[in-house]
Amino acid sequence: MTLELKSIGKSVGAEVHIHPTDLTLEAGSFNILLGTTLAGKTTLMQLMAGIERPTSGEVWFGGQNVTGVAVQKRNVSMVYQQFINYPNYSVFENIASPLRVARLPAAEIKKRVGDMAELLKLSAMLDRRPSELSGGQQQRTALARALVKDSDLVLLDEPLANLDFKLREELRDELPRLFSDRNCIVVYATTEPTEALLFGGNTATLMEGRVTQFGPTGDLYRQPNDLVSARVFSDPPMNVAPVRKTGSEIVFGGDVRWPAGERFQSLADGEYLFGVRPHHVTPMRKSDAAVPVEGRVLVTELSGSESVVHFEINDIPWVSQSHGIHAFDVGASATLYLDITEAFYFDGEGRRITTAAPQGH
Amino acid sequence: MNKTVNQKAWLFVVPVVLLVAFNAIIPLMTVVNYSVQETFGDNTFFWAGVLWFEQVLNSERFHDSLMRQIIFTATILAIEVPLGVAIALTMPRKGVWVPVCLVLMALPLLIPWNVVGAMWNIFALPEIGLLGRMLNGIGFDYNFTRQPEDAWFTLILMDVWHWTSLVVLLSYAGLVSIPDAYYQAAKIDGAGGWAIFRHIQLPKMKRVLTIAILLRFMDSFMIYTEAVVLTGGGPGNSTTLLSIDLVKIALGQFDLGPAAAMSLIYFLIILLVSWVFYTLMMRNEQQ
């Protein structure tokens, strides 16, 4: 079954929560909604599920218009950031609750709950109440309840955000396995670009109620359409600075210049925005093409395996992220190398420039 | 490491010990003192042992006022708790009406107790009171100063008016603490209004409701001011609740011994019921 959002929008009063959005999600796909808090991820999910009614547009599911069809008639399940379970039910009854609503025979319920508990490592705690479980187990119970009824659409709204680091990693590793042999549409909302990359699948970047780009996660990361999508999909934030193209050269800050290269040779002269991810700004020269820049060090964060250095060039803050420990004195001037082959160029409206020199493919 | 023996820590406890001694232990011991002795008011005391306790426990008068007290408390709990929860459920959880509703609800709680009694007394007077005139006007033979049933009706109505708000506010606090996601999850499951109440709202309100019931039990069991201003225990003894009876014995008849014994029994009843109730609720919570 395919879920199609046809120019769906949501406004409350004069406030636009979701701008008209078109999105097609295929059965068996894992889709990530990536965006900061208040970007509209939850609202978009609620529109998909039918918890909220869109103020414009239509929702189609499996070739049928389901706009306005109540959520309980749609075979949807959802897991939230908070651990939502029935407080006075045991784990067994919690997992069984959607099956009871569907009036399945007791033996069937017992079997399916048993299988699901097995899958989510809850077999030993079926008799306990949610309040007697750890956060991770509570969220597993909520996941089991969402999965047990074989929904066509499973919505996961930052399900790992309230878990502590270890449990989060553990459950994150398990999630793809849980959905591997299912033919449902999974939608997973997160604020973390890393999470999107780990899950793969498709990603939609969201910003202020707008889906800025949608496609396979890897493509989105490597080829953002515009500055907004690139920024949403970059952590630490992408470094962005104004540059000027003159002739065959790109000039940054007056004295740093590098050749525009084959791809951007034919680009019209003028002002552009230049974006480079923090791990392409390094304290060590990685290739001959790398361009050295001088900056003043503001803050260094060393984690042991990684160094994150915040610095500024011409009053613009920059971030560098690199392997190993690279210590800098705060306030001192430092040389960092920009890997300009990995850089993006954006025009005045923030669109990424790709067509300057059409490639062979 | 060697343990250092240092008794100075006790000094830090002294202020609170003094405070509790002056406002609780010493007054209580004075009562205990009166309850086991006979005095004629000239500061001479004779040992009476458990005489007063026996007398109080065997007196029909005490049985009657205790029974009235139990009926009163049970009735107002049976009305105020469900009514309070029902009102809390209908109150808006978001928007501009929230503060308005909260202030309206809190209003009865802000009125001094004797004013509540005086207000209802005048309000219910059959000749001039709005409620009294109205009830008589629509054909009821209503007179709370003469008919015991009417006195009870007015007393309970007054208490419900005065104290349901407390249950409402506590329940409301419990309700607003439930994240929206619970309601959405229930909606996805296709749960109806009753199922949402039974399986989400009620379990989530359990803790605050326990407190509400406990507070209402204790307060209503000790009700004095409003009741004495409204009915003065009458007509006859029909609304003489425990505390009114106690005051009559202690200050009306000046029977200090029996009054002291009765105070202690009264106190122990409240303590015992509250303790049992609390323990049961908390044990239930843990299971």
What can you tell me about this protein's structure?
Chain A is built from 9 helices and 20 strands. Chain A has helices at residues 41-49, 91-101, 106-119, 135-148, 165-179, 193-199, 217-222, 227-232, 261-264, and strands spanning 3-12, 15-25, 30-34, 56-61, 64-65, 76-79, 153-157, 185-190, 202-207, 210-216, 239-246, 249-252, 256-259, 270-276, 281-282, 291-302, 306-313, 316-323, 333-338, 344-346. With 287 residues, chain B is mostly helical. In chain B, 75% of the residues lie in helices and 2% in strands. Chain B is flat. Chain B has helices at 9-35, 51-58, 60-90, 97-110, 113-124, 130-137, 148-176, 180-189, 193-221, 225-230, 242-252, 256-286, and strands at 37-39, 45-47. At the A-B interface, strand 6 and helix 2 of A face helix 8 and helix 9 of B.
Question: How are the elements arranged and paired?
Answer:
The complex is a heterodimer of chains A (361) and B (287).
Chain A: E1 3-12, E2 15-25, E3 30-34, H1 41-49, E4 56-61, E5 64-65, E6 76-79, H2 91-101, H3 106-119, H4 135-148, E7 153-157, H5 165-179, E8 185-190, H6 193-199, E9 202-207, E10 210-216, H7 217-222, H8 227-232, E11 239-246, E12 249-252, E13 256-259, H9 261-264, E14 270-276, E15 281-282, E16 291-302, E17 306-313, E18 316-323, E19 333-338, E20 344-346
Parallel strand pairs in A: 3-8, 3-9, 6-7, 7-8
Antiparallel strand pairs in A: 1-2, 1-4, 4-5, 9-10, 11-12, 11-14, 12-13, 14-20, 15-19, 16-17, 16-19, 17-18
Chain B: H1 9-35, E1 37-39, E2 45-47, H2 51-58, H3 60-90, H4 97-110, H5 113-124, H6 130-137, H7 148-176, H8 180-189, H9 193-221, H10 225-230, H11 242-252, H12 256-286
Antiparallel strand pairs in B: 1-2
Helix pairs in contact in B: 1-12, 2-12, 3-7, 3-9, 4-7, 7-9, 9-12, 11-12
